[in-house]
User: Which sequence fits this backbone?
C-alpha cells in the first residue's frame, strides 16, 4: 500500500478524500464474492499443482536438463514460454508459468479495477454512492485494495502450494510475488485507463491492448536473445516477472522495479481522478450527426455500429500477433534435429510433423482459442443489450427477435472468420517472408488459421444456447472458453487424459499445417455449432425479454 | 389510416396472468381501450402496469388470459403490429455513442417510418439538440428523444409508460399538446402515468389497477360518480329542532358518512349517487348556503392506492 499512500496529500485531507473507503471495499468484496475466489483458486492451484506434474513427467535430473537445453536452444520456444533459467522442477514451473501466470493475474486485476471504477460511473451507480459520505479518492482506493487482496491471495496460494509440495521456499515466494506484482502493476494501469476513457469496455480494451503489447515484447525479446537480456524483454513487465528468476538465484531487486512502476501508475491515476468530474473523462464528447445515415436503419445496421470498433481492435491485434509469431517461427528450425526428447515435447505441444509446422500449428491454435474470447464477447452483446434495457425499444419496433439476435450473431460469426483470416494472413506472410517463400507458405498457414473457425463456432453456438435457454447464466460461457484455453495451453505438457482433451472442440482439429486433414471433424463441429445455435434461437423466440 | 380499425377495440385484455417465479405480477387483469381514445393507465408502483405493457408489446409471454392489439395477437403478430405502434418507456436508455438524432431516425425506421417535417417541428418544440451523444443527455432529454421518435412516427397506437418522468413543467405542456394532437388525428394512446393533472387533462377514460388486477375502469365522470361528494351547508333552522329531520335523521340516510353538526352548520360526505336524498332532506330544514365539492382526482386514486400501501411488494417490472 506504499503506492497508494505516497500519492496522497496531507493527512487531514487524506481522511476526507478517503472517507467511505472501508464501506466501498466491503461492497466490492461482497459483489465479487464468486468472481475473485474463482480466479484466485484456479490461477493459484494451476501454478501450485504444476510442480508435482513436472516432477512426474520428467523424473530424472538428466531428463530435465535435456528439456531445458533444447528449449533454450530454440528461439520459437523461448518466444512462447521464455528461457529456462534452472532445470530444477521449480525452475521448470517458473519457466512455464511466470509469464502466463503474470498474464492471467493482469487480466484478473484489470477486470476488478475497471469493474469498480469506470463501470460504476458509467452505470450511474457511483453517483449515488459519491453523494453519500464517500471521499473523492475512495472508489479508486477501494478498487485498488480489492485488486491488492486478490493478487496477494494468488501470490500466497502459489508460494504456499509450491513450498508445500517440496519446492524451495525462496523460489516459491519469488514466483508468487512475480505473478502477484505483475497483477498489481496492471491494476495500476487499469486505474489510469479507467480515468481516461468514458466506457468500461474501452478501459478494459486499452488495458488489454497494453497487456498484449507487454506479452509480445517479451516474446520478441526472448526470441532474439537466449539470456533474456534483450531491451525488448526489459521494457515488458511480463519480462520482469520471468527475470525475477524464481528458483534460479532470485533477483529480488526486480521487486523494486515493480514497486516503482506500480507507484508511478497509481500516483498518475490519483492525479487524473482529482482533475476530473464523476462520470466524465478527459476526452470531451464530440457532437454526432443530427440525422442517421441510411445504413443505420435496422437491427443489423445498429449491431454493426455497436460492434465495429471492437472488431477493428481485434483485427489489428491479430495482425500484430500473426506478424510477430510468423517472424519467429523460423527459429523452430534451429532446434537440434536429432533430439528425440525435444521432438517429443514439441509434438506434445500440439504439433504433428515438422518442427516449424508444429510451431505454426501451435500458433494457429493459440490464435483460435483467443479468437473464441472475441466471439463469445460478440454474442454476449445481445445479453448486455437486453439487460441494459436497450433491446426493448428495438424489439418494440417492427423487428423480429430472430432478426435482432441474428444481426449480432452474424457479426460474431463473420467477425471470427475475419480476425482469423487476418491473423493467418499475417502469420503466413511474415513467416513466408522470413523463409523467402511467401507463395508456398501463405496458403497452408492461412488454411491452418481458418481451420480453427469450426471449433470457435462450436463455442459460439454454446453461448447462443445459454443466451436462449438460460439467459441468467450467460457468464458461464466465459467459463467454457476459459476451460478450453486451459485444456489447450497446459493440457498437452501435463499429459491430460485423452477424454479431457476431447472436451475442447479445439482438440478435435487436425494440426494444420502439416497434418492430414479429413472433412469429418469439421463437419461434426459445424453441425454441432449449428444445432446449438438453432436450439438457442428457438429459446430466444420463446422466452421473456428483459 | 385508422378507419379500418375504428370499429374494434384497439386493445382488449381479458383475465391476463403473468408470474415471475412466485411473484404474481398480473392476476387476472382486464383492459379495454377503444380506437381513437386516450386511455389513462393508473396504479401504485409495482401494480403491474409495465408488465401489462410488456405483454402488449410481445416482450413477455402471458401465462394465461388473452390480449388483442388492433385485432391481432401481441405475441405471434409482434413484428406486424409493431409497425403500427410507437412505444416510449419510462426510463429511456440510449446507446452511449449514438447521437439523439440517429436514435430518433433508427426508432422511426424500425416502425412504419418517420415524418421528416414533424420530426423537425418536434425537435424545436421539445428544444432538443439532436447532435449530442447518448451518454451526454440528461434523463429528461433522453425521454425527449424517445418522445420525438414516437410522435414523429406514422403509427396507429402509442404506448406511453410514464413518459413524462424527468420533463420540466414547460415540456410537460408540450407533451400534453402533442398527445392532444395525436388524439385529433384519430390515434389511440395508452398512457401510464402518475401525474394526475396530466391524466385529468388528457384522458377520455382511465383504468386503475392494483396488485395485477383492474379495480376501476371508466370515464373520469363515471369514476367520480362512484365516490363521495363533500357537502357543507348552513341551514336556516337547526337540524336538531323538528324531531323528524334531526341530525339523527340525516345520519340515517343511506350513503352518508362523517356527519358533523354544529348549530346551524352541517358537514358531511355522501356517496355521489345518494346525493339527491341528502339535498332533499336539507331542503326541508331550509338552506342558507351550500357548498358541494366533487371528489378530486387525488382522492379518487388515494382511495385505491392507500389500502395497498402496507402490502405493497416490489414487483420489479
Assistant:
Amino acid at each position: 500500500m506504499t503506492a497508494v499512500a505516497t500519492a496522497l496529500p496531507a493527512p487531514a485531507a487524506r481522511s476526507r478524500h478517503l472517507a467511505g473507503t472501508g464501506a466501498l471495499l466491503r461492497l466490492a468484496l461482497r459483489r465479487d464474492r464468486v468472481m475473485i475466489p474463482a480466479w484466485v483458486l484456479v490461477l493459484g492451484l494451476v501454478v501450485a499443482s504444476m510442480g508435482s506434474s513436472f516432477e512426474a513427467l520428467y523424473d530424472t535430473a538428466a531428463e530435465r536438463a535435456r528439456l531445458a537445453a533444447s528449449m533454450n536452444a530454440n528461439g520459437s520456444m523461448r518466444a512462447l514460454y521464455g528461457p529456462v533459467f534452472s532445470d530444477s522442477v521449480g525452475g521448470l514451473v517458473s519457466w512455464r508459468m511466470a509469464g502466463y501466470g503474470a498474464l492471467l493475474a493482469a487480466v484478473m486485476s484489470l477486470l476488478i479495477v475497471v469493474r469498480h471504477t469506470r463501470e460504476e460511473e458509467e452505470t450511474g451507480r457511483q453517483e449515488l454512492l459519491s453523494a453519500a459520505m464517500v471521499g473523492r479518492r475512495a472508489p479508486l482506493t477501494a478498487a485498488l485494495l480489492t485488486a491488492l487482496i486478490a493478487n496477494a491471495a494468488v501470490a500466497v496460494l502459489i508460494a504456499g502450494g509450491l513450498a508445500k509440495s517440496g519446492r524451495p521456499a525462496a523460489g516459491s515466494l519469488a514466483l508468487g510475488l512475480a505473478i502477484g506484482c505483475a497483477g498489481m502493476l496492471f491494476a495500476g494501469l487499469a486505474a489510469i485507463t479507467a480515468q481516461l476513457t468514458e466506457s468500461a469496455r474501452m478501459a478494459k480494451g486499452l488495458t488489454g491492448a497494453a497487456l498484449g503489447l507487454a506479452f509480445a515484447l517479451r516474446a520478441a525479446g526472448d526470441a532474439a536473445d537466449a539470456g533474456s537480456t534483450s531491451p525488448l524483454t526489459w521494457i515488458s513487465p511480463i519480462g520482469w516477472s520471468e527475470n525475477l528468476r524464481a528458483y534460479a538465484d532470485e533477483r529480488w531487486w526486480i521487486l523494486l522495479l515493480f514497486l516503482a512502476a506500480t507507484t508511478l501508475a497509481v500516483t498518475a491515476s490519483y492525479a487524473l481522478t482529482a482533475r476530473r468530474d464523476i462520470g466524465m473523462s478527459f476526452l470531451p464528447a464530440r457532437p454526432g450527426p443530427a440525422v442517421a445515415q441510411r445504413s443505420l436503419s435496422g437491427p443489423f445496421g445498429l449491431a454493426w455500429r455497436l460492434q465495429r470498433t471492437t472488431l477493428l481492435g481485434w483485427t489489428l491485434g491479430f495482425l500484430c500477433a500473426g506478424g510477430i509469431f510468423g517472424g519467429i517461427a523460423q527459429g523452430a528450425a534451429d532446434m537440434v534435429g536429432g533430439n528425440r526428447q525435444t521432438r517429443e515435447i514439441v509434438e506434445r505441444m500440439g504439433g504433428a510433423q515438422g518442427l516449424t509446422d508444429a510451431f505454426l500449428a501451435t500458433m494457429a491454435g493459440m490464435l483460435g482459442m483467443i479468437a473464441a474470447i472475441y466471439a463469445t464477447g460478440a454474442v454476449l452483446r445481445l445479453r448486455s443489450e437486453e439487460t441494459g434495457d436497450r433491446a426493448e425499444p428495438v424489439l418494440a419496433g417492427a423487428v423480429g427477435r430472430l432478426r435482432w439476435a441474428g444481426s449480432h450473431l452474424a457479426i460474431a460469426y463473420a467477425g471470427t472468420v475475419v480476425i482469423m483470416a487476418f491473423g493467418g494472413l499475417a502469420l503466413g506472410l511474415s513467416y513466408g517472408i522470413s523463409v523467402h517463400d511467401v507463395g508456398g507458405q501463405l496458403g497452408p498457414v492461412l488454411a491452418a488459421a481458418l481451420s480453427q473457425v469450426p471449433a470457435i463456432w462450436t463455442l459460439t453456438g454454446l453461448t447462443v444456447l445459454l443466451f436462449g435457454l438460460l439467459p441468467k447464466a450467460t457468464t458461464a460461457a466465459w467459463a467454457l472458453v476459459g476451460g478450453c484455453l486451459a485444456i489447450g495451453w497446459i493440457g498437452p505438457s501435463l499429459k491430460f487424459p485423452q477424454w479431457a482433451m476431447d472436451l475442447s472442440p479445439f482438440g478435435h482439429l487436425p494440426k494444420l499445417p502439416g497434418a492430414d486433414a479429413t472433412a469429418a471433424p469439421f463437419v461434426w463441429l459445424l453441425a454441432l455449432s449449428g444445432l446449438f445455435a438453432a436450439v438457442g434461437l428457438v429459446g430466444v423466440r420463446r422466452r421473456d425479454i428483459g | 389510416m385508422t378507419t379500418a380499425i375504428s370499429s374494434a377495440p384497439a386493445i382488449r385484455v381479458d383475465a391476463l396472468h403473468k408470474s415471475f417465479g412466485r411473484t404474481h405480477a398480473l392476476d387476472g387483469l382486464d383492459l379495454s381501450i377503444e380506437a381513437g381514445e386516450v386511455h389513462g393507465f393508473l396504479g401504485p408502483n409495482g401494480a403491474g402496469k409495465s408488465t401489462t405493457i410488456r405483454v402488449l408489446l410481445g416482450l413477455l409471454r402471458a401465462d394465461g388470459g388473452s390480449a388483442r392489439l388492433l385485432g391481432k395477437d401481441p405475441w405471434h403478430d409482434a413484428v406486424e403490429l409493431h409497425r403500427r405502434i410507437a412505444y416510449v418507456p419510462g426510463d429511456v436508455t440510449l446507446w452511449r455513442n449514438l447521437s439523439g438524432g440517429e436514435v430518433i431516425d433508427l426508432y422511426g425506421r424500425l416502425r412504419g417510418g418517420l415524418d421528416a417535417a414533424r420530426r423537425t417541428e418536434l425537435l424545436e418544440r421539445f428544444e432538443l439538440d439532436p447532435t449530442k451523444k447518448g451518454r451526454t443527455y440528461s434523463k429528461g432529454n433522453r425521454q425527449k428523444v424517445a418522445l420525438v421518435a414516437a410522435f414523429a412516427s406514422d403509427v396507429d397506437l402509442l404506448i406511453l409508460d410514464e413518459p413524462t418522468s424527468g420533463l420540466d413543467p414547460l415540456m410537460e405542456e408540450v407533451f400534453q399538446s402533442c398527445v392532444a394532437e395525436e388524439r385529433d388525428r384519430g390515434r389511440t394512446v395508452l398512457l401510464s402515468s402518475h401525474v394526475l393533472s396530466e391524466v385529468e387533462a388528457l384522458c377520455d377514460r382511465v383504468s386503475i389497477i392494483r396488485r395485477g388486477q383492474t379495480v376501476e375502469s371508466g370515464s373520469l365522470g363515471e369514476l367520480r360518480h362512484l365516490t363521495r361528494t363533500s357537502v357543507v351547508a348552513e341551514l336556516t333552522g337547526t337540524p336538531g329542532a323538528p324531531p323528524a329531520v334531526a341530525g339523527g335523521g340525516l345520519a340515517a340516510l343511506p350513503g352518508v358518512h362523517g356527519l358533523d353538526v354544529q348549530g346551524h352548520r352541517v358537514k358531511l360526505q355522501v356517496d355521489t349517487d345518494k346525493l339527491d336524498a341528502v339535498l332533499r332532506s336539507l331542503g326541508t330544514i331550509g338552506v342558507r348556503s351550500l357548498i358541494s365539492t366533487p371528489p378530486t382526482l387525488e382522492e379518487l386514486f388515494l382511495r385505491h392506492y392507500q389500502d395497498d400501501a402496507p402490502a405493497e411488494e416490489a414487483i420489479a417490472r
Remarks:
- The longest strand of chain B covers residues 9-20.
- Residues 228-294 of chain B form a domain with the Alpha-Beta Plaits fold (CATH 3.30.70).
- Chain B has a mean pLDDT of 85.
